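quick one, two chains, predict together pls
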Amino acid sequence: MDNFIRKVNRVACYIIAVYFIIGIQQPLTAQDTIPRDTLQLNEVEVFGKSVNFFPYTVIPAKTFEFEPVRDIGDFLRGETNISGIRKGGVGIDPVVRGFKYNQVTVLLNDGVKIEGGCPNRMDPVASHVESENVEKVEIIKGPYVLKYGPVLGALINLTTVLPHPYTKPEVHCEALFGFESNWNGQREHIALSGGNDKVFFNLSCGYKGYGSYTAGNDVLYNTSFIKSYGTAGFGFMIKRNHKFILSYTYDQGNDVGYPALPMDERLDQTHVASLNYLGQNISKTWQSVEFQGYFSSVHHVMDNLNRPASKTMQAVTTVDAWNGGGKLTGSLQSGIHKFQAGFDFEHIFKNGEKKMTMKMVMEGDTFTSVKYANVWLDAIYNNAGAFAEYTVPLKGIEFTAALRFDYNQATSRDTFKLVKDGISYFDDLNSNFFNISFSLGIKKQLASWLYLSAAVGRGTRSPSVLERFIKLMPVQYDSYDYLGNPQLKPEKNYQADVAFEFIHPNIGNLSVGGFFSLITDYIIGKVLPPSVIKPSTQGAPGVKQYSNTDLVYLTGFEVTYRSPTVKKWGLRASVAATYGIEPEAVKYIISDGQVVGEETVKNDPLPEIPPLEGSLQFSYKFFRGKLVPCATVRMVSAQNRISQAYGELKTPGFITAAFSVTCVPVKYISLVAGIENIFNTSYYEHLNRRIVGSTERLYEPGRVFYLTVIFKI
Amino acid sequence: MKMVKDSFRSGIAILLLIVISSQISSCKKDNDSDPAKTSGKIIFSIEHKVGGQFLKENELIYINAAENEYLITEVKYFISDITFYHSYGSRKVIGEWKDIYYVDENITETKTIRFYDDIPTGIYDSITFIFGISEEKNKSFMFVNPPEVNMFWPEVLGGGYHYMMINGKWKDTADVIQPFNFHLGIGQLYYGSTYDVDSIYAFVQNYFTVHLPGSAFTMNDQDTIEFRLSMNVEKWFENPHIFDFNYWGGAIMQNQQAMQTAKENGWNVFSISRLP
């Protein structure tokens, strides 16, 4: 009987896998083509042939809901060739193949965008969304998918939990409680969803409260944070094929400590609202029409009131950032020809002010001086785009071509001007660009178990609001105050990817790929002399201004292996590295702490490139998957390829280990207990920022015991 | 047309991508220095003296022209807009990298200034600098890091930064050791006879230009010339006005008359000589 059930299960798994092959594996379009009321697919793992010609990863919620995820950026660091910039306990900014900040497009639900409020990127996009509300994460490396807005180096799409129809009236409830030692963190989440085939809804709320963590070096870092959030969604169907979904999310952060930044986050309030319409099977040729409109706002307050520096100078910065836009997409199919085209629009408004208060006791009297400076003053960024994608199988080769045009415009009401000795550093505030992006890709089955995919593309990214208009905030790794440059040119990435995939149902999935990227007009900071402008942030050694450098290169490889999910044992292994080079970089010669000259460094490694990294994960399913122990080892080599020009520091290599046990005692309850950093290794990632006012790096947390309980009905 | 041009450029870039990738492994790191042209470099080594001897802090061993016994605990100040006058009539104002220099007796690295600017070759007649910071440049909050930030001058008293702080103690007429803060900065003019900040009706810029006698030099190509710049501290108290702590008291930053006296004494406080 058991054997029979096992066989049935296996057959079911294969059927579901085939379903995934033709459905979910088509990136970001699953909900375009698959009615949401047919199957709930979260409970299976993906295995099968990928139809993508570009590096594509999908991470279903199942993968991370059992892990102690405090922050999506933190979780993403576990993926192949993805790193993160840590400045505190949360708000880790993802770096994909060496592409970072706005070079990585992070969006929600295929198009909703959030403009972070903090100039120091305390709140990158992913930090405004809690992992408990995420259904899946999709990662596309390279500038190949152009229908979600301009993409330079990578795209991360966070699909949040949205209401969906049910074939019969249903109501579901889900609750999660998690606790972590070391920083005594706890998270609580509760969600309700339900409806029928006409109307449907979802609601959720949650809380996360974490203290400061102690690293493996026994140093306590002020990384505490409080987060609270709530979501509400409502959807309805008009006829069978027309679905409308309204959703709203509120996310708030309080008292978030960032030891590697000059300030801490006092308050961060995020509102995200969206309206989605999906019409399917409109005619034989007209496959679908999709509309999405959204608005997001972030109110961000940060200060240095808990820092020693506040004794002499207090600084409080308040920023409001809005992002609104929409997208209209149509999909057509005629025979073997698939065509998708549409328009999108994005509008960003950003306003921020820094208040500095200097208190001095002089000759018995206390004097207080106050200065107000705008960080942004009504900065506006508009981007209108048109895109098209065509797919056709030709002689056994899946061929895809995509094209995108963008018109980008930005301005600001800044009164600040910086012109010295005839050189205009910050003057003309208006800029307009017409950008072209395109990609071409093929996927060829070389043998029954071997696939070749190749892609070339050009991605163009207009400078962000920060890069254009920021005024004297330490927004990068080097503690310098940064000054925007309204006349920056867009970055262009010319990239090529080649990958071989070995797929066998009994052996597993092995993928070997490499990429080469040439970026022209690369945006990077160049030092401005103190005689031109001085920093306004305590601890900043000087001022850098964003400027375009001629070109840089990024190249790297990724090798991943995953055993078949039908096996009791599970093995995942990966190794990846990225190398970045700036052919000509300017290095300043410093003597007695003073800049006395400059020289050109040839082939200087790009800063903030993570080192070679490998990981191994082994698991075994006892009692038909009801008890699954899992051990993970992560090995990271030293990063000695550091930028001389940008004064980077070397980072030693390290090995960490983790262990967890997942237990499903009854159908509705799952328990996960585990240990992170088992050996309490004292280490820091290469991209971790330095502690403010020192060269010491922010270390990663030491040993953490955790327990997560999930209840689903 | 721009589209076509962009596409053409894209094609070229992709071809380049292949070519460059084959070259990238053979690239070697190499440091290039800009070839020096007809110019040289200048270094200032700064020292503080009293009566021709190196300053000894925290020792009550000095007597000024008013016969006040005093000791010095701190000497710190700004000099800016250092200017080299060429014999042809042109001048070189230091400022390509930095234009305001902080000097502190207790911070060794501030007492050696290595100018970033290249000084063109030729014969120079003299050197001058501004003691303190000019009105145009002396803005509040322009320094946020120590040690410069500690020179902050309150906004209500004129803002910006102290030009100078010489702190110490003197023995008053009753032989009691009293602290003094011999500070220079933006002065204030008050209605009435009190120093209530609400009665300030005007500010006075007290920075001044220091001319350095005997500072002529010849700059040859690739030369590095080092000068010794000396502040003779006792001269702040003697010429043309005898500065008596018993008369002015220990705090002068809200006393424009006292600061004016100090400012007028500053004309010969500095001397310069060329080091071999």
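Residues 194 and 200 of chain B are 10 Å apart (CA to CA).
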